[in-house]
Amino acid sequence: MGSSAPALDSIPLSKGERGDALRRWNVHVWEWKALMAILIVTDLLMVGLAFRVAYWIRFETGLTIFAEALSSNAYYERLVLVLTPVWLLIFVVVGLYQRDVLLGGTEEYSRVFRGTSIGLLFIVMAGFLDPELIIARGWVVLAWGLTFLLISLGRLVIRRIAYWLRSQGFFLARALIVGANAEASAVAEQPGDDQFGEAEFSSDRCERVTEHVRRDAG
Q1: For a FRET experiment, which of 25, 72, 175, 190 has its CA 20 to 30 Å from that of 12?
Q2: What confidence score (pLDDT) does residue 1 get?
Q3: Which whole-number Å values give the CA distances from 35 to 75, 159, 165, 179, 188, in the listed order?
Q4: CB 99 within 8 Å of CB 32
Q5: How far is CA 170 from the centre of its chain?
Q6: Closest residue by Cα to residue 214 from 206, 172, 188, 201
Q7: β strands within the chain, DSSP E
Q8: Is the confidence at residue 162, as pLDDT, over 80?
Q9: Which residue from 93, 91, 86, 92 is spatially nearest to 148, judged by alpha carbons?
Q10: R_g (Cα) of the chain, nearest Å
Q11: Nearest CA to 96 among 39, 54, 26, 149?
């Protein structure tokens, strides 16, 4: 379903259908680029908010369950400026911006948990390797849990908005349905498919289209 735009030239479509397909393809590409940009900005904001709320709970609420520790606001602000891009890089590595894990299933949230856990281990290892790096353990644990919760919440909201946009014709998977039997009709009724063509070809033309799809997939 993910053929490239130039491949449309060899598919037997009329000039108008081909132009419409190319237009939709370009819009489709920009939709996903916009979604990725929104996810990156949201993740940055959620990470920063999680670190700040963790600081507030650890040092400003006066809870007696925490032991005395360095509570310099300026110190933790500098620490957050370093940790935030590191965590974002970790999210890239674990695949949180891969299209195939977005807008469906639980894999996205599983990778959020994996990424935040790796971020937690990064902080622990940094403190172990550099004795002068003093970080309150309570803040680290709170930051880990809050980061997972807030990023998951942010992505859940974005997913719901994307679902609504999908019902309006955005974020649809492109599909060319060859045939007009019951199976083709069933595929056409599946949500999330943007059919730019449904045709019943003669056997020789079907063979040419099938061969093209095989070459493109290879």
Answers
A1: 190
A2: 42
A3: 34, 10, 11, 33, 25
A4: yes
A5: 16
A6: 206
A7: 173-178, 193-199
A8: yes
A9: 91
A10: 24
A11: 39
DSSP single-letter state for residue 131? T
pTM here? 0.68
Per-domain residue ranges of the chain: 30-167
Higher pLDDT, 187 or 86: 86
| pLDDT: which is higher, 168 or 146 | 146
Locus of tokens 């132009």: 19
Q: 132: which 2 tokens?
A: 């002068």
**What is the 3-state secondary structure of 133-170?**
CCCCHHHHHHHHHHHHHHHHHHHHHHHHHHHHHHHCCC
**Distance separating alpha carbons of residues 105 and 102, to the nearest angstrom:** 8
Positive or negative, the CA dihedral 13, 16, 19, 21 is negative
15-55 helix and 73-93 helix, angle to the nearest 10 degrees: 150
Averaged confidence pLDDT in the chain: 75
Q: What is the pLDDT of residues 120-137, one digit of tens each?
A: 999 888 878 877 777 888
Higher per-residue pLDDT: 54 or 30: 54
